[in-house]
Amino acid sequence: MFAPGQLVVDARGRVAAVRPFRGARCDFQAIVPGFVNAHAHLQLEPLARPVRSFVPWLRAVIADRSRRSLDDLERAAERALESDSLCRSIGEVDSTGASRSALARARTRGRLYRELLGFDLDSRAARALVRGTDTPATRRCPRGLSPHAPYSVSSPLLRAAVRTRRPLMVHVAESPEEVEFQATGRGPFRELLEDLDRLPRDFRPRRESSVEWLARHRALSPRTALVHCQHISDGDLALIVDARAPVVVCPGTIRYFRRRPPPLEEWIRAGVRFALGTDSRASHDGDATIVGELVTARRLWPNVEPERLLTGITAAAGRAIARPDLGVLRVGGPADFVGVAWSGPTTAETLFDGLASGSVECRAFPRDPR
Ligand SMILES: [Zn+2]
Fold first, then answer.
1. By C-alpha distance, which of 208, 211, 207, 256 is closest to 231?
2. Contact indicator for 84, 119 with CB cutoff of 8 Å
3. CA of 279 to the centre of ligand 1 (A)
4. What's the pLDDT score for residue 1?
5. Domain 35-328: which CATH class?
6. What percent helix, strand, coil does the chain show, rounded to 5?
7. How far is the CA of 205 from the centre of ligand 1 (A)?
8. Alpha carbon distance 69, 82 (integer Å)
9. Span from the CA of 199 to the centroid of ligand 1 (angstroms)
10. Is residue 97 a contact partner of residue 65, using CB atoms and an 8 Å limit?
């Protein structure tokens, strides 16, 4: 893994060659592919005071968002991008259309998923919503759609999203309340939908898990990122593995809600493809940065190999957002990378421990992305 080398970059910012280095001194001890944040909501800012129970938290986020203007949300997205300067690629869930210009200005790469909400939408209304929100993305962030979650999306809306064949991102099996609502149609999510006047008159409980619901609508695929998956059965796990659907876990959110971490080692043994994401600053204590997620992931899953966790913010994260060209360094590809320097032996362990403890010096390249 570590050999003195030279990365040659052409005038278009692409990797032209990698060759052995014979000079006296290398600039960095390691070059790591550019970091990719597989799941974010850049527009969401920290709540005025933390709410650590999921459905009340969701109510607080909805209320907070309703008070903000589009300009406000755009500024929030800009601030979020600035606060994580080492991360130049992202899978962003945009709920209002305000993230697009912030991403374009920061020249961020990745994918822009437009959020879809509507538990009460029939086929016609669902098709109209998807047509209306399937709007231009940026040159560096092609479009995706994010049917938000099983408790906020009707079956016709999910079907309409699947029909576009765009990459999808869905929050799945995040809380026990979601499991209860899918199984029985009762509980805090029913109350929330009633309060929002979104529960259809002819509503019938689905009586299937969130993963089964996605599978029945042909939504499970390598191009659908499943976010969280906190509460899945062995049967759900088999469906996810068979479909080769990537799972995005968000360590900061697990900590914020004091959740039990999902069994990542078991998932890896079963063949799950996982990536890491920051989620939003509304479900975070402190800054939401992708290296911070790596640090938290190391604490939550100390037995997972460090290199494996590192791919969760590089190559595996690129694949999770249907951008296999990101989070990798190859000749002909973009020269997006992070140069890392530290004192101490040059080994994968010291690199990882340094990243995790913040004791290494990292610089993201290119300095001025094109
Ligand atoms: Zn999320």
1. 211
2. no
3. 5
4. 57
5. alpha beta
6. 35, 20, 45
7. 24
8. 20
9. 22
10. no
Q: Do 280 and 288 form a contact (C-beta atoms < 8 A)?
A: yes
Relative to beta strand 247-249, strand 274-276 is: parallel
Distance 103 CA to ligand 1 centre (A): 18
> Shortest CA distance to 274 belongs to which of 245, 238, 232, 243?
245
Domain residues of the chain, as ranges? 1-33+330-370, 35-328
Q: Give the model confidence (pLDDT) of 285-338 as tens digits.
A: 988 999 999 999 999 999 999 889 999 999 999 999 999 999 999 999 889 999
How far is the centre of ligand 1, averaged over its atoms, from the C-alpha of 370 (Å)? 28
Ion ligand 1 — residues with CB under 5 Å? 279
pTM of the entire structure? Answer: 0.96
- Interval between CA 348 and ligand 1 midpoint (Å): 31
**How far is residue 186's CA from residue 199's CA, in Å, rounded to a whole number?**
11
Q: What distance lies between CA 267 and its chain's CA centroid?
A: 18
Which token pair is 163?
A: 């029909």
> Residue 337: what are its φ and ψ, rounded to 5°?
-155, 165
Length of the chain: 370
Find the 358 Cα to ligand 1 centroid distance in Å.
25
Distance 171 CA to ligand 1 centre (A): 6
Tokens (6 digits) for 216? 């029945």
Give the position of tokens 């998923």.
113
Distance 275 CA to ligand 1 centre (A): 13
Q: Measured between alpha carbons, how far is residue 335 from residues 64, 275, 276 in Å? A: 39, 21, 22
Residues in the chain with pLDDT values less than 70: 1-2, 370
**Three-state SS at 282:** helix
Reported as a single tens digit per residue, the pLDDT across 111-132 is 999 999 999 999 999 999 999 9
Distance 123 CA to ligand 1 centre (A): 25
> Are the CB atoms for 96 and 74 separated by under 8 Å?
no
Cα-to-centroid distance, 250 and ligand 1 (Å): 8
Ligand 1 centroid–CA 183 distance in Å is 22
Take residue 299 and report the two structure tokens written for it. Answer: 């604490």
Q: Which residues contact 29 (CB under 8 A, 6 or more apart)?
A: 2, 340, 341, 342, 346, 351
